[in-house]
Structure formats: C-alpha cells, structure tokens
Specification:
Elements (H helix, E strand, L loop, with lengths): L1 H8 L2 H6 L5 E2 L2 E2 H24 L11
Antiparallel strand pairs: 1-2
Helix pairs in contact: 1-3
Amino acid sequence: MLPFIAIILLFPPIILIFSKPVALFGLPLIVVYLFAVWAVVIAAAFLLSLRLGKPDPADNEPG
C-alpha cells in the first residue's frame, strides 16, 4: 500500500499543485514538497519494517 501512496503523491497532477512561485526557507515550494514526500515515505517504510518484525527461522525449516 505504501508504494501506491508514494506514487500518487509523486504523480504530476499532484506535484503541479506545489509548482507555485513561493519559497520556503529559500527553496521553491515544489522542492520542499518532493523532499518532504521522499522523507515521509522512507520514514513510513522504516516504521513498517519495525512493526513487521523479524521473520521466524522456524518457518523456513522443511517438514
């Protein structure tokens, strides 16, 4: 589900909403948006990996 949300957030019609001539901290708004989405997707993937936990080695044993 996370990759689909990332694709939607990085889809050109959504990105074009943020292509205004506005600067945040001296950076164009579109650049701030892209890096914020990128950081949130990586953080969400990290938190999801922690929540899933490590695989049980007993599940991989045959028989």
